[in-house]
Amino acid sequence: MKVPVPDEILPVHRLGRVHFVGIGGAGLSGIARIMLARGVTVSGSDGTDSPTLHALRELGATVHLGHAAEQVRDVDTLVVSTAVRDDNPEYVEAVRQGLRILPRSAALAAVMADRRVIAVAGTHGKTTTTSLLTVALQTAGADPTYAIGGDLAATGVNAAAGTGELFVAEADESDGAFLHYSPYAAIVTNVEADHLDNWGTEAAYVAAFDEFADTIDPEGFLVCVVDDPGAAALAERHRAAGRRVVTVSAREPGALADVRLWSPGEHYLADALAALAAARELGFAEDDLVRGLVSYTGTKRRMERKGEVAGVRVYDSYAHHPTEIAGDLAAARAVAGEGRVIVAFQPHLVSRTRIFGAAMGVALGAADEVVVLDVYLAREDADPDVTGALVAGAVPLPAERVAFVPAFDDVAGELVARARPGDLVLTLGAGTVTEIAPRVLELLADG
Fold first, then answer.
1. Backbone φ/ψ region at 446: left (φ over 0), alpha (ψ -120 to 50), beta
2. pLDDT tens sequence for the chain (447 residues)
Protein backbone atom coordinates (compact mmCIF):
# COMPACT_ATOMS: atom_id res chain seq x y z
CA MET A 1 0.00 0.00 0.00
CA LYS A 2 1.28 3.46 -0.91
CA VAL A 3 0.39 6.16 1.63
CA PRO A 4 0.76 9.75 0.37
CA VAL A 5 3.41 12.00 1.89
CA PRO A 6 1.74 14.96 3.64
CA ASP A 7 2.33 18.46 2.33
CA GLU A 8 3.96 19.39 5.63
CA ILE A 9 6.27 16.92 7.37
CA LEU A 10 6.32 17.72 11.06
CA PRO A 11 9.54 17.41 13.07
CA VAL A 12 9.67 14.34 15.25
CA HIS A 13 8.90 16.15 18.53
CA ARG A 14 5.48 17.17 17.13
CA LEU A 15 4.30 13.68 16.15
CA GLY A 16 3.07 12.69 19.60
CA ARG A 17 2.77 8.97 20.30
CA VAL A 18 3.89 7.01 17.25
CA HIS A 19 2.80 3.49 16.27
CA PHE A 20 4.61 1.52 13.55
CA VAL A 21 2.75 -1.13 11.56
CA GLY A 22 5.50 -3.57 10.56
CA ILE A 23 7.96 -2.27 13.15
CA GLY A 24 10.31 -5.23 12.70
CA GLY A 25 11.23 -4.32 9.13
CA ALA A 26 14.65 -2.95 8.23
CA GLY A 27 13.33 0.53 7.45
CA LEU A 28 10.77 1.10 10.20
CA SER A 29 12.82 -0.47 13.00
CA GLY A 30 15.65 1.98 12.40
CA ILE A 31 13.34 4.99 12.47
CA ALA A 32 11.70 3.67 15.64
CA ARG A 33 15.12 3.26 17.26
CA ILE A 34 16.01 6.91 16.53
CA MET A 35 12.64 8.15 17.79
CA LEU A 36 13.07 6.22 21.03
CA ALA A 37 16.49 7.80 21.52
CA ARG A 38 14.87 11.22 21.07
CA GLY A 39 12.28 10.58 23.76
CA VAL A 40 9.26 9.73 21.60
CA THR A 41 6.68 7.25 22.92
CA VAL A 42 6.84 4.39 20.43
CA SER A 43 4.67 1.33 19.91
CA GLY A 44 4.35 -1.07 17.02
CA SER A 45 3.22 -4.40 15.69
CA ASP A 46 4.56 -7.18 13.52
CA GLY A 47 3.54 -10.62 12.41
CA THR A 48 6.35 -12.63 14.00
CA ASP A 49 8.78 -12.13 16.85
CA SER A 50 12.43 -11.44 16.13
CA PRO A 51 15.66 -10.20 17.74
CA THR A 52 14.82 -6.77 16.30
CA LEU A 53 11.57 -6.67 18.27
CA HIS A 54 13.33 -7.79 21.45
CA ALA A 55 15.86 -4.97 21.03
CA LEU A 56 13.12 -2.37 20.51
CA ARG A 57 11.29 -3.56 23.62
CA GLU A 58 14.50 -3.18 25.62
CA LEU A 59 14.76 0.40 24.37
CA GLY A 60 11.26 1.14 25.67
CA ALA A 61 8.93 0.40 22.77
CA THR A 62 5.63 -1.42 23.30
CA VAL A 63 5.60 -4.10 20.61
CA HIS A 64 2.64 -6.36 19.80
CA LEU A 65 2.65 -9.61 17.87
CA GLY A 66 -0.19 -9.52 15.37
CA HIS A 67 -2.34 -6.61 14.25
CA ALA A 68 -5.48 -5.41 16.03
CA ALA A 69 -7.50 -2.19 15.99
CA GLU A 70 -7.27 -1.65 19.75
CA GLN A 71 -3.48 -1.34 19.48
CA VAL A 72 -3.78 2.10 17.86
CA ARG A 73 -6.57 3.61 19.93
CA ASP A 74 -4.14 5.53 22.12
CA VAL A 75 -1.70 6.95 19.55
CA ASP A 76 -1.34 10.15 17.54
CA THR A 77 0.64 9.09 14.47
CA LEU A 78 0.63 5.86 12.49
CA VAL A 79 3.65 4.88 10.36
CA VAL A 80 3.16 2.14 7.76
CA SER A 81 5.46 0.27 5.41
CA THR A 82 4.65 -0.40 1.76
CA ALA A 83 4.12 -4.07 2.67
CA VAL A 84 1.00 -3.19 4.71
CA ARG A 85 -2.33 -3.91 2.97
CA ASP A 86 -5.22 -1.46 3.06
CA ASP A 87 -7.35 -3.93 5.02
CA ASN A 88 -4.88 -4.06 7.91
CA PRO A 89 -7.02 -3.52 11.05
CA GLU A 90 -4.64 -0.95 12.55
CA TYR A 91 -4.61 1.09 9.35
CA VAL A 92 -8.39 0.85 9.05
CA GLU A 93 -8.80 2.03 12.65
CA ALA A 94 -6.35 4.89 12.14
CA VAL A 95 -8.34 6.07 9.12
CA ARG A 96 -11.58 5.83 11.14
CA GLN A 97 -10.06 7.97 13.89
CA GLY A 98 -8.57 10.48 11.46
CA LEU A 99 -5.06 9.91 12.80
CA ARG A 100 -1.97 11.30 11.12
CA ILE A 101 -0.75 8.49 8.82
CA LEU A 102 2.78 8.58 7.45
CA PRO A 103 4.68 6.42 4.99
CA ARG A 104 8.20 5.38 5.92
CA SER A 105 9.73 8.24 3.89
CA ALA A 106 7.84 10.92 5.82
CA ALA A 107 8.72 9.34 9.17
CA LEU A 108 12.39 9.29 8.22
CA ALA A 109 12.19 12.90 7.04
CA ALA A 110 10.68 13.82 10.43
CA VAL A 111 13.72 12.50 12.33
CA MET A 112 16.06 14.21 9.84
CA ALA A 113 14.81 17.69 10.79
CA ASP A 114 17.57 20.01 12.04
CA ARG A 115 20.31 17.67 10.76
CA ARG A 116 22.65 17.95 7.77
CA VAL A 117 21.62 14.98 5.66
CA ILE A 118 23.86 12.90 3.41
CA ALA A 119 21.59 10.58 1.43
CA VAL A 120 22.91 7.46 -0.29
CA ALA A 121 20.91 6.34 -3.32
CA GLY A 122 21.31 3.94 -6.23
CA THR A 123 19.86 0.74 -7.63
CA HIS A 124 22.57 -1.35 -5.95
CA GLY A 125 25.06 -0.86 -3.14
CA LYS A 126 23.07 1.59 -1.00
CA THR A 127 23.33 -0.34 2.24
CA THR A 128 27.04 -1.07 1.91
CA THR A 129 27.89 2.50 0.91
CA THR A 130 25.79 4.01 3.71
CA SER A 131 27.49 1.66 6.17
CA LEU A 132 30.98 2.50 4.90
CA LEU A 133 30.28 6.22 5.08
CA THR A 134 28.94 5.92 8.62
CA VAL A 135 31.98 4.00 9.88
CA ALA A 136 34.42 6.33 8.07
CA LEU A 137 32.80 9.40 9.65
CA GLN A 138 32.77 7.82 13.09
CA THR A 139 36.47 7.00 12.82
CA ALA A 140 37.19 10.57 11.69
CA GLY A 141 35.63 11.95 14.86
CA ALA A 142 32.05 12.63 13.82
CA ASP A 143 29.10 11.12 15.66
CA PRO A 144 26.43 11.00 12.94
CA THR A 145 22.90 9.81 13.28
CA TYR A 146 22.46 6.99 10.79
CA ALA A 147 19.68 4.91 9.27
CA ILE A 148 20.74 1.92 7.19
CA GLY A 149 18.82 -0.89 5.49
CA GLY A 150 20.83 -3.53 7.34
CA ASP A 151 22.59 -4.07 10.67
CA LEU A 152 26.20 -2.91 10.90
CA ALA A 153 28.29 -5.90 11.93
CA ALA A 154 30.33 -3.74 14.31
CA THR A 155 27.32 -2.42 16.25
CA GLY A 156 24.62 -5.00 15.55
CA VAL A 157 22.07 -2.25 14.80
CA ASN A 158 20.74 -0.52 11.69
CA ALA A 159 20.29 2.94 13.17
CA ALA A 160 21.47 5.18 16.00
CA ALA A 161 20.91 8.74 17.13
CA GLY A 162 24.29 10.48 17.15
CA THR A 163 25.20 13.73 18.86
CA GLY A 164 26.63 15.41 15.77
CA GLU A 165 24.98 17.52 13.08
CA LEU A 166 25.25 14.89 10.34
CA PHE A 167 22.56 12.36 9.41
CA VAL A 168 23.65 9.56 7.06
CA ALA A 169 20.65 7.90 5.47
CA GLU A 170 20.07 5.12 2.99
CA ALA A 171 17.69 6.69 0.46
CA ASP A 172 15.35 4.13 -1.07
CA GLU A 173 14.07 4.75 -4.57
CA SER A 174 11.71 1.75 -4.74
CA ASP A 175 8.58 3.73 -3.82
CA GLY A 176 9.90 7.25 -4.37
CA ALA A 177 10.88 7.69 -0.72
CA PHE A 178 14.18 9.36 -1.64
CA LEU A 179 12.37 12.34 -3.15
CA HIS A 180 11.36 13.68 0.29
CA TYR A 181 14.65 14.14 2.17
CA SER A 182 16.14 17.42 0.80
CA PRO A 183 19.71 16.35 1.65
CA TYR A 184 22.73 18.60 1.89
CA ALA A 185 24.67 16.06 -0.17
CA ALA A 186 24.03 12.75 -1.88
CA ILE A 187 25.76 9.70 -3.30
CA VAL A 188 24.38 7.83 -6.31
CA THR A 189 26.10 4.47 -6.77
CA ASN A 190 24.34 3.48 -10.00
CA VAL A 191 21.11 3.92 -11.95
CA GLU A 192 19.81 0.73 -13.52
CA ALA A 193 16.14 -0.11 -14.09
CA ASP A 194 14.39 -1.77 -11.14
CA HIS A 195 11.12 -1.47 -9.22
CA LEU A 196 9.18 -1.07 -12.46
CA ASP A 197 6.06 -2.21 -10.58
CA ASN A 198 6.13 1.29 -9.11
CA TRP A 199 7.78 3.39 -11.84
CA GLY A 200 6.29 1.69 -14.90
CA THR A 201 9.12 2.39 -17.33
CA GLU A 202 12.88 2.63 -17.27
CA ALA A 203 12.62 6.27 -18.40
CA ALA A 204 10.45 7.13 -15.40
CA TYR A 205 12.87 5.35 -13.08
CA VAL A 206 15.85 7.30 -14.46
CA ALA A 207 13.89 10.56 -14.28
CA ALA A 208 13.28 9.93 -10.57
CA PHE A 209 17.03 10.06 -9.94
CA ASP A 210 17.19 13.44 -11.68
CA GLU A 211 14.37 14.63 -9.46
CA PHE A 212 16.26 13.27 -6.44
CA ALA A 213 19.42 15.15 -7.45
CA ASP A 214 17.37 18.32 -7.81
CA THR A 215 16.42 18.07 -4.11
CA ILE A 216 20.06 18.48 -3.00
CA ASP A 217 20.91 21.74 -1.25
CA PRO A 218 22.34 24.23 -3.78
CA GLU A 219 25.35 24.64 -1.45
CA GLY A 220 25.85 20.87 -1.28
CA PHE A 221 27.21 18.29 -3.69
CA LEU A 222 26.53 15.05 -5.55
CA VAL A 223 28.91 12.06 -5.69
CA CYS A 224 28.47 9.63 -8.59
CA VAL A 225 30.20 6.34 -9.44
CA VAL A 226 30.93 6.81 -13.14
CA ASP A 227 31.73 3.13 -13.78
CA ASP A 228 27.96 2.81 -14.09
CA PRO A 229 26.56 4.39 -17.28
CA GLY A 230 23.38 5.56 -15.58
CA ALA A 231 25.23 7.30 -12.74
CA ALA A 232 27.78 8.73 -15.19
CA ALA A 233 24.99 10.24 -17.29
CA LEU A 234 23.36 11.64 -14.15
CA ALA A 235 26.66 13.27 -13.16
CA GLU A 236 27.07 14.81 -16.60
CA ARG A 237 23.55 16.26 -16.65
CA HIS A 238 23.81 17.83 -13.21
CA ARG A 239 27.32 19.15 -13.66
CA ALA A 240 26.09 20.87 -16.83
CA ALA A 241 23.26 22.36 -14.76
CA GLY A 242 25.79 23.95 -12.41
CA ARG A 243 25.69 21.53 -9.48
CA ARG A 244 28.90 20.57 -7.66
CA VAL A 245 29.49 16.98 -8.78
CA VAL A 246 32.28 14.66 -7.61
CA THR A 247 32.94 11.49 -9.60
CA VAL A 248 34.73 8.30 -8.57
CA SER A 249 35.74 5.14 -10.40
CA ALA A 250 36.95 1.76 -9.21
CA ARG A 251 39.40 1.91 -12.12
CA GLU A 252 41.06 4.85 -10.36
CA PRO A 253 41.28 3.69 -6.74
CA GLY A 254 43.55 6.53 -5.58
CA ALA A 255 43.90 6.49 -1.80
CA LEU A 256 42.45 2.95 -1.67
CA ALA A 257 44.85 1.48 -4.26
CA ASP A 258 46.87 -0.47 -1.68
CA VAL A 259 44.11 -0.95 0.89
CA ARG A 260 42.55 -4.31 1.74
CA LEU A 261 38.80 -3.89 2.13
CA TRP A 262 36.39 -6.20 3.89
CA SER A 263 35.21 -7.85 0.66
CA PRO A 264 36.71 -8.38 -2.78
CA GLY A 265 35.00 -7.09 -5.90
CA GLU A 266 35.09 -3.96 -8.03
CA HIS A 267 31.66 -2.85 -6.91
CA TYR A 268 32.68 -2.93 -3.23
CA LEU A 269 35.72 -0.81 -4.07
CA ALA A 270 33.41 1.64 -5.86
CA ASP A 271 31.16 1.83 -2.80
CA ALA A 272 34.17 2.60 -0.58
CA LEU A 273 35.46 5.25 -2.99
CA ALA A 274 32.07 6.96 -3.03
CA ALA A 275 31.93 6.99 0.77
CA LEU A 276 35.49 8.35 0.95
CA ALA A 277 34.74 11.10 -1.58
CA ALA A 278 31.59 12.24 0.24
CA ALA A 279 33.26 12.35 3.66
CA ARG A 280 36.28 14.16 2.23
CA GLU A 281 33.99 16.80 0.68
CA LEU A 282 32.48 17.29 4.13
CA GLY A 283 35.93 18.33 5.36
CA PHE A 284 37.21 15.25 7.17
CA ALA A 285 40.84 14.11 6.97
CA GLU A 286 41.52 11.44 4.36
CA ASP A 287 43.87 9.40 6.56
CA ASP A 288 41.21 9.06 9.26
CA LEU A 289 38.56 8.17 6.70
CA VAL A 290 40.71 5.47 5.08
CA ARG A 291 41.40 4.04 8.52
CA GLY A 292 37.65 3.80 9.05
CA LEU A 293 37.08 2.08 5.70
CA VAL A 294 39.79 -0.47 6.51
CA SER A 295 38.20 -1.16 9.91
CA TYR A 296 34.76 -1.79 8.41
CA THR A 297 33.64 -5.38 9.03
CA GLY A 298 30.54 -5.52 6.87
CA THR A 299 26.79 -5.32 7.19
CA LYS A 300 24.49 -8.23 7.90
CA ARG A 301 23.06 -9.87 4.78
CA ARG A 302 25.73 -8.29 2.53
CA MET A 303 28.19 -11.12 1.76
CA GLU A 304 27.93 -12.07 5.42
CA ARG A 305 29.96 -15.07 6.50
CA LYS A 306 27.67 -17.36 8.50
CA GLY A 307 30.16 -20.09 9.37
CA GLU A 308 32.14 -23.09 8.22
CA VAL A 309 31.51 -26.77 8.92
CA ALA A 310 33.22 -29.82 7.40
CA GLY A 311 35.30 -27.59 5.15
CA VAL A 312 32.23 -25.90 3.62
CA ARG A 313 31.99 -22.12 4.00
CA VAL A 314 28.50 -20.60 4.13
CA TYR A 315 27.70 -16.99 3.22
CA ASP A 316 24.45 -15.03 2.96
CA SER A 317 23.68 -11.94 0.89
CA TYR A 318 20.75 -9.75 -0.10
CA ALA A 319 21.25 -9.64 -3.89
CA HIS A 320 17.96 -9.78 -5.79
CA HIS A 321 18.65 -7.99 -9.10
CA PRO A 322 20.72 -9.53 -11.94
CA THR A 323 23.54 -7.00 -11.51
CA GLU A 324 23.68 -7.63 -7.77
CA ILE A 325 23.70 -11.38 -8.31
CA ALA A 326 26.63 -11.05 -10.72
CA GLY A 327 28.54 -8.85 -8.29
CA ASP A 328 28.08 -11.15 -5.31
CA LEU A 329 28.97 -14.25 -7.31
CA ALA A 330 32.17 -12.54 -8.48
CA ALA A 331 33.02 -11.80 -4.85
CA ALA A 332 32.12 -15.36 -3.83
CA ARG A 333 34.36 -16.73 -6.57
CA ALA A 334 37.29 -14.68 -5.24
CA VAL A 335 36.68 -15.93 -1.70
CA ALA A 336 36.15 -19.55 -2.75
CA GLY A 337 39.60 -19.85 -4.31
CA GLU A 338 39.95 -23.41 -5.56
CA GLY A 339 36.55 -24.39 -4.19
CA ARG A 340 33.27 -24.40 -6.08
CA VAL A 341 30.49 -21.85 -5.58
CA ILE A 342 27.08 -23.33 -4.83
CA VAL A 343 24.26 -20.79 -4.75
CA ALA A 344 20.67 -20.86 -3.54
CA PHE A 345 18.64 -17.99 -4.97
CA GLN A 346 15.17 -16.85 -3.97
CA PRO A 347 13.53 -14.49 -6.50
CA HIS A 348 11.92 -11.48 -4.83
CA LEU A 349 8.57 -10.11 -6.04
CA VAL A 350 6.42 -11.47 -8.84
CA SER A 351 6.75 -8.24 -10.83
CA ARG A 352 10.55 -8.22 -10.67
CA THR A 353 10.76 -11.91 -11.57
CA ARG A 354 8.42 -11.41 -14.52
CA ILE A 355 10.65 -8.65 -15.90
CA PHE A 356 14.12 -9.82 -14.88
CA GLY A 357 13.72 -13.57 -14.28
CA ALA A 358 15.62 -14.66 -17.39
CA ALA A 359 18.44 -12.21 -16.64
CA MET A 360 18.59 -13.51 -13.06
CA GLY A 361 19.08 -17.02 -14.42
CA VAL A 362 21.86 -15.90 -16.76
CA ALA A 363 23.65 -14.15 -13.87
CA LEU A 364 23.38 -17.29 -11.72
CA GLY A 365 25.30 -19.15 -14.41
CA ALA A 366 28.51 -17.77 -12.85
CA ALA A 367 28.10 -20.34 -10.05
CA ASP A 368 29.03 -24.02 -10.27
CA GLU A 369 25.78 -25.36 -8.84
CA VAL A 370 22.46 -23.50 -8.63
CA VAL A 371 19.37 -24.11 -6.51
CA VAL A 372 16.41 -21.81 -7.20
CA LEU A 373 13.58 -21.33 -4.71
CA ASP A 374 10.09 -20.17 -5.51
CA VAL A 375 9.27 -16.47 -5.62
CA TYR A 376 9.10 -14.59 -2.33
CA LEU A 377 5.79 -12.75 -2.66
CA ALA A 378 6.25 -9.84 -0.24
CA ARG A 379 3.56 -7.23 -1.04
CA GLU A 380 2.20 -8.95 -4.18
CA ASP A 381 -0.14 -11.83 -4.94
CA ALA A 382 1.09 -15.06 -6.50
CA ASP A 383 1.01 -15.59 -10.25
CA PRO A 384 1.04 -19.26 -11.36
CA ASP A 385 2.86 -18.23 -14.53
CA VAL A 386 5.71 -16.54 -12.63
CA THR A 387 7.62 -18.94 -10.38
CA GLY A 388 11.22 -19.79 -9.62
CA ALA A 389 11.11 -22.20 -12.55
CA LEU A 390 11.31 -19.16 -14.83
CA VAL A 391 14.69 -18.31 -13.32
CA ALA A 392 15.99 -21.87 -13.12
CA GLY A 393 15.14 -22.50 -16.76
CA ALA A 394 17.37 -19.61 -17.83
CA VAL A 395 20.51 -20.74 -15.99
CA PRO A 396 23.15 -21.59 -18.64
CA LEU A 397 24.48 -24.69 -16.89
CA PRO A 398 23.98 -28.43 -17.53
CA ALA A 399 20.63 -29.61 -16.19
CA GLU A 400 22.17 -31.74 -13.46
CA ARG A 401 23.81 -28.65 -11.96
CA VAL A 402 20.55 -26.68 -11.65
CA ALA A 403 17.52 -27.46 -9.49
CA PHE A 404 14.23 -25.70 -8.92
CA VAL A 405 13.19 -26.56 -5.34
CA PRO A 406 9.80 -24.95 -4.57
CA ALA A 407 9.49 -26.54 -1.10
CA PHE A 408 11.39 -24.21 1.23
CA ASP A 409 12.17 -26.92 3.80
CA ASP A 410 13.94 -29.03 1.15
CA VAL A 411 16.44 -26.36 0.08
CA ALA A 412 19.05 -26.79 2.82
CA GLY A 413 19.23 -30.54 2.21
CA GLU A 414 19.63 -29.97 -1.52
CA LEU A 415 22.56 -27.63 -0.90
CA VAL A 416 24.27 -30.02 1.50
CA ALA A 417 23.86 -32.89 -0.95
CA ARG A 418 25.72 -30.85 -3.57
CA ALA A 419 28.46 -29.41 -1.33
CA ARG A 420 31.86 -30.93 -0.61
CA PRO A 421 34.89 -29.77 1.40
CA GLY A 422 36.42 -26.61 0.00
CA ASP A 423 33.17 -25.33 -1.49
CA LEU A 424 31.42 -22.06 -0.71
CA VAL A 425 27.64 -22.08 -0.29
CA LEU A 426 25.95 -18.72 -0.86
CA THR A 427 22.30 -17.97 -0.11
CA LEU A 428 21.00 -15.01 -2.12
CA GLY A 429 17.80 -12.98 -2.05
CA ALA A 430 15.82 -10.33 -0.22
CA GLY A 431 13.32 -12.70 1.39
CA THR A 432 13.38 -15.67 3.76
CA VAL A 433 16.30 -17.38 2.02
CA THR A 434 18.50 -15.93 4.77
CA GLU A 435 16.99 -18.55 7.11
CA ILE A 436 18.56 -21.36 5.09
CA ALA A 437 22.22 -20.68 5.92
CA PRO A 438 21.91 -21.75 9.59
CA ARG A 439 20.06 -24.90 8.49
CA VAL A 440 22.86 -25.76 6.08
CA LEU A 441 25.42 -25.44 8.86
CA GLU A 442 23.32 -27.63 11.16
CA LEU A 443 22.98 -30.34 8.52
CA LEU A 444 26.69 -30.25 7.78
CA ALA A 445 27.41 -30.61 11.49
CA ASP A 446 25.10 -33.61 11.65
CA GLY A 447 27.13 -35.27 8.92
1. alpha
2. 788 888 899 999 999 999 999 999 888 999 999 999 999 999 999 988 888 999 999 999 999 999 999 999 999 999 998 888 899 999 999 999 999 999 999 999 999 998 999 999 999 889 999 999 999 999 999 999 999 988 888 888 999 999 999 999 999 888 788 999 999 999 999 998 777 777 889 899 999 999 999 999 999 999 999 999 999 999 999 999 999 999 999 999 988 988 888 777 788 899 999 999 999 999 999 999 999 999 998 777 778 899 999 999 999 998 888 988 998 999 899 899 999 999 999 999 898 899 899 999 999 999 999 999 999 987 778 899 999 999 999 999 999 999 999 999 999 999 999 999 999 999 999 889 999 999 999 999 987
Backbone angles phi, psi at 18, to 5 degrees: -115, 130
- Spatial neighbors of 337 by CB under 8 A, at least 6 apart, are none
We report the CATH number of the domain holding residue 169 as 3.40.1190.10
Choose the catalytic residue: 170, 192, 324, 414. 170
Catalytic annotation present for 202: no
Residue 170 designated active-site = yes
269 lies in some domain = yes
Distance between CA atoms of residues 299 and 157, nearest Å: 9
Active-site residue, selected from the candidate residues 127, 145, 189, 434: 127
- Cα separation of 60 and 81, whole Å? 21
295, 321, 353: which is the final residue of a domain?
A: 295
The answer to whether residues 150 and 80 belong to one domain is: no
| Strand ranges (E), 140-252 | 145-147, 159-160, 166-170, 185-188, 221-225, 245-248
State yes or no: is 8 an active-site residue.
no
Domain hosting 441: range is 304-445
CATH of the domain at 43: 3.40.50.720
Which of 77, 82, 90, 126 is catalytic? The answer is 126
